[in-house]
Amino acid sequence: MMRIINFKKRSVPVYYPNEQSASIELLNHKLHEMELDFDFRKKWRRIKSVEMVRDVAIFQYTDGTKLYLEVS
Question: What's this model's pTM, rounded to 2 decimal places?
Answer without folding.
Answer: 0.86
